Amino acid sequence: MPFGLRAAALRGTGEHREAAASWLAARWPLLATAALLGVLTDLLLAGPLTTVLDVRIHEWMGALPHTGPDLVLAHVLDHTGQRWLVTPVVIAAALWACRRRRSWSSLWLVLGTIFAMNVVIAIAKFTLDRGLAITGDPSLFVPNGQAFPSGHAANAASAAALLVLLVARARGTRIRRSSALVAVVVPSTVMTVVSLYLGFHWFSDLLAGSLLGVLMVRAGAAVEGRLGPRLRRRRPRVSTPFDTDLPETEAARLASARAADPARDRAPHAQLRRRPGATTA
């Protein structure tokens, strides 16, 4: 049945919402990748998003009153996207998940994702050299530009996505799609609005940074899923010292020592350490 007819048949029963949610959950990485490539293409071709819409949003935000309390709150919220603040929080959550799962795979996931994301951001910033929003020039290859993509937006989105993933792992439960979506969208939206209000970035910079952040987390989780059996491999625990398999040389040495002391086999209790003055029965 075509998707439209099937959706019409399921309308009113609530099943079409589940079908749409499942379809979106399975294909959101592809949609996010397409959106990120679309923003990058528009930037390279000087399309309407990065030349017209960015400038108009920047001018509209600049016309808003920047009073004392609002400005202070905006600067405080802007710090939530800084690497030095979000990275320790995510690493602490990863260590918690490692302790609960008895595996270091969550920590390798966090460290690998953060490292790869910062490498990609650095390459894009130093290659494109997009002008900063405070200069009013959205073009590329501007000296000391480095505005695209937004590192703050990428940090906020990736940290939120990693925290959702790590909390679910530590608790051993699955988080609802709606809760996970809210937990990632809200910090990303706050960072976007704050950065636009302060005039630090263009809108396309923040959009690309948020998309890049969640995609890097998804890619890191996919890689960790393939390497998970190796990362979670642990040595078997020994319940008692007598369960240990001794090497052949060690076993031979013990056998020769026991053969050289026949009294040890005849009187095992003689090897026990007795207290001073104790007598045998």
Automatic annotation (TrEMBL):
Name under which the protein is recorded: Membrane-associated phospholipid phosphatase
Biased composition regions of type Basic residues, renumbered to the chain: 271-281
SMART domains referenced in this protein's UniProt entry, alphabetically: acidPPc
Listed transmembrane segments: 107-128, 148-168, 180-200, 206-227
Keywords from the UniProt entry: Membrane, Transmembrane, Transmembrane helix
Keyword Ribonucleoprotein: no
InterPro entries: PAP2/HPO, PAP2/HPO_sf
Entry keyword annotation includes Metal-binding: no
Pfam annotation, one family: PAP2
Domain Phosphatidic acid phosphatase type 2/haloperoxidase stretches: 103-221
Chain positions covered by the region annotation Disordered: 253-281
